[in-house]
Amino acid sequence: MIIRGCRKAVTAAVLLSGALLAGCGGGMTRSDMEDNTGSMGKENPANSGAGEVYAQLAVAYLRNGQTAIALQQAKKSLEVEPGNASGHNIIAVIYTRLREYKLAEHHFLKGLDAQPKNSYLRNAYGTFLCDRQRYKEASEQFRLALENPLNQSPEVALTNAGICERLSGDQKKAEEYLAQALRANPIFPMALLEMAEIKLRKEEYLSARAYLQRYLEVANHTSASLWIGIRTERMLGDQDAVASYALNLRNNFPDSQENLLLIESENK
Question: If you count DSSP H runs as helices and E runs as strands, how many of each does the chain have, helices first?
Fold first, then answer.
């Protein structure tokens, strides 16, 4: 959902899940399973069998933090309809959260066997692979998700592909994917925040600030965005902004990795 360093801000926060894309919400943390995989339980027109009701119930319970009940509902979905792609998708997401990675991958693959052109599943599986540092395999899944002309949210797969390329070390390709994501959807929060991070790393500080400001027009601060803001404004010399971001981070995200990074940086 997706944190190793600032990665947590963006992927662990989101590289798992479908960008449960609940639209342009505020935070980016792996609960934003909606911010990355496209959707844990987004309904596909091909899914209309008996298992679909249980799959959607599983999504609702998982969103409510009731993982055990969500798992029960997901299992029921596959009991009544073994080939239900949504059921395999949601149970794969649940097993990923439970760190049962072999079971998770098994269900991702079963879901794709049932619906090989399902772009949501391709994106979710790509996210899963990227988190396992299987970057080439992940890239292939994002490519397949984007090849589907019925993919209604290409910015999600493009953003995840960009994040994955950055994590693999290819900053240039990462930026290219993110630029494509923002052409598809100029206000997609994850792409804006990730682009701010990339511009910061490239020492293009005014651009980093601009992307962060665009992000804040459509989403609320997270520990990730605040840490980007702190580092950017330090380089631009705006100590008032640094102090404001730092206070916000300490008060609202005291247990975050970014707050630990802030403390470490201040003690140097």
Answer: 14, 0
What is the crossing angle of helices 119-131 and 154-168, to 10°?
Answer: 20
Each residue's pLDDT, cut to its tens digit, for the chain (268 residues) gives: 333 333 333 333 334 443 333 222 223 333 333 434 444 334 344 445 788 999 999 999 999 999 999 999 999 999 999 999 999 999 999 999 999 999 999 999 999 999 999 999 999 999 999 999 999 999 999 999 999 988 999 999 999 999 999 999 999 999 999 999 999 999 999 999 999 999 999 999 999 999 999 999 999 999 999 999 999 999 999 999 999 999 999 999 999 999 999 999 999 8
One-letter amino acid for residue 165 of the chain: E
d(CA 52, CA 142): 25
Phi and psi angles of residue 53, each rounded to the nearest 5 degrees, phi first: -60, -45
Supply the DSSP symbol for 167.
Answer: H
The DSSP letter of residue 152 is S
If you search the block for the tokens 């596909």, which residue do you land on?
44
Instruction: Give this prediction's pTM.
Output: 0.79
